[in-house]
Amino acid sequence: MNSHCHTCLQPSCFGYPISIFFIVINEFCERFSYYGMRAVLVLYFKYFLHWEDNLSTVIYHTFVALCYLTPILGALIADSWLGKFKTIVSLSIVYTIGQAIMSISSINDLTDYNRNGTPDHIPVHIALSVVGLILIALGTGGIKPCVSAFGGDQFDDDQEKQRTRFFSIFYLSINAGSLISTIVTPVLRGTECGIHSKQRCYPLAFGVPAALMAVALIVFIIGSGMYKKVQPQGNIMIQVSKCVGFAIKNRFRHRSKEFPKREHWLDWASEKYDKRLIAQTKMVLKVLFLYIPLPMFWALFDQQGSRWTLQATTMDGNFGAIQIQPDQMQTVNPILIIVMVPVVDAVIYPLIKKCGINFTPLRKITVGMFLASLAFVAAALVQVQIDKTLPVFPAAGQTQIKVINLGSVEATVKFEPGNSTFFFSFQTIDQVVSSLGEKRHTLAVKNVGTTIVAELVSLFINNMAQTVNISMGSTHFGPLKSLSASNYKAFSRGSKAIIGNTSSSSCGISSKTFGFGSASTIVINECSGSSLAATYIEDIPPNTVHMAWQIPQYFIITCAEVVFSVTGLEFSYSQAPSNMKAVLQAGWLLTVAVGNIIVLIVAGASKLSEQWAEYVLFAALLLVVCIIFAVMAYFYTYVDPNEIEAQLDEDEKKQAKKDKDLEKEAEAISQM
């Protein structure tokens, strides 16, 4: 604490109130927590809850939309009822509980009664996840509008310079939090943990954000004594809504011809509301009207966490020494943001200015939309390349069967049409296929004396007479009886040692390399001396399209974000009076929410079976919206709120002078 500050209300450091540091740390932890959880969310849906891609995408975007709808609620609670400090604390508690529930929901040992590594009661996990996500959406959304405003409240009116710098540091802490968490959380998810069986570590990936949220909360409460806490002033949004509502109602009442028309429909509110509020509301509505096309941008932008991450799961993440997880590709965005924002401000914009082009804020937003559309064209091109390498999976009502002959005699396998029985040339085995569903199956056949063993298998098949204990890397497949098969097990990629132990000998293969995304069936033929003889059958070939091919689309969409997102808020604030910032922020966040709802509708309603076609559809939709926005922007006239405010002040002064003169006259008359 500085010596000169013993007497004043707020201790300061480098001219900043100390309380600011608590707020910045709190924001860093909160963003880390949110983005970390969001980074692994879609893969948690796909691989843990076993939801298909479309459902995962829909639920992901429902959650993000909720996170951007709740800020309006948060702002109302803070401004009209609890005040910012209490709102932040109480909603942070809700948030922390939500994160903790998410972490618990992802523990597969919770319902894994038979200890085979998969949860037995998925509905329990789904119910917990949904509760957790709703609490997180309430928490993160409710806090969002309060934290930055609460930070702004800490400065005195003469600290404008420090306040501006605080907002820069604040945004930096948001990006730092999202960057670090998007790198760290997928690594945590990639590790293996579990009580009875080792699995991908979702509890840790959700648990670390939960712990950080608790830290954020504690840090924020510690600073409690130092904060300037402004009393709730009533919410400007409510006033604006009432003013608009009254104007519409009043206009409707006076719709007949005998009432003179008014210059603007909002002027019908003048009976009840003062001129200043009406003038300010006009400015706000003018900006909000321009917001109407913006959600389409967010519809594309927020698919980085859903569709693009799912796209990365079908790609090869081998970057030489390091292995990139599909959900880590999202880090390209925050890394580029940190690099691009200063470069664009210091280099690109001045260059455009030098060329004599007037790059107005609305033109920047239009360019941002066009670039995002371009990014999706790039994503579609990558998808076309991936589709060439993907195996053909069975459609609804189909089953694929692969037949492996384990014997040395040739076997004939016939599938009779319309019959749910397999026929073999040497013996018939009744095997119901109708119950197999939409899956791939491997059928292993061997003629052993007079009986035939038909086994639907995956991964290891023991083709020897005696039982063998198989392990690959650190994963144990357990004892396999003669002619039996193990379950499929998931591995991290790379070369693995395979070790087999029988009652009489121990044997192994020092290393066998498996590619990313591949699935193999390994038939153990012999275990003698120290060598293990095996046949490898590739069920699904490894992914061959490299994840680096996603970098162009990430680069383009980040350029789009820099010119769109940063400009959008600055432009909004410059076009409306300062006391209306909350309304504009609410409107801006609403565009993000609506954007995510658009994805829900398109992903749910479009009957496009090809992913690349969906990318092209989104690109086309945004291009159309971009053209509409360009036309709207062309007809927009920029205003200077300060001038309008000054004009209002002037009018008020004149009015006051008039009133005074009238009073004097009246007095003079009464004295006569």
From TrEMBL:
User: Which UniProt keyword terms apply here?
Assistant: Membrane, Peptide transport, Protein transport, Symport, Transmembrane, Transmembrane helix, Transport
Q: Which GO terms describe its biological process?
A: oligopeptide transport; protein transport
Bias-annotated ranges (Basic and acidic residues): 651-672
**Which superkingdom is the protein from?**
Eukaryota
Q: Give Gene Ontology CC terms.
A: apical plasma membrane
Q: Which PANTHER family match?
A: OLIGOPEPTIDE TRANSPORTER-RELATED
Record family assignment: Belongs to the major facilitator superfamily. Proton-dependent oligopeptide transporter (POT/PTR) (TC 2.A.17) family.
Stated name of the protein? Solute carrier family 15 member 1
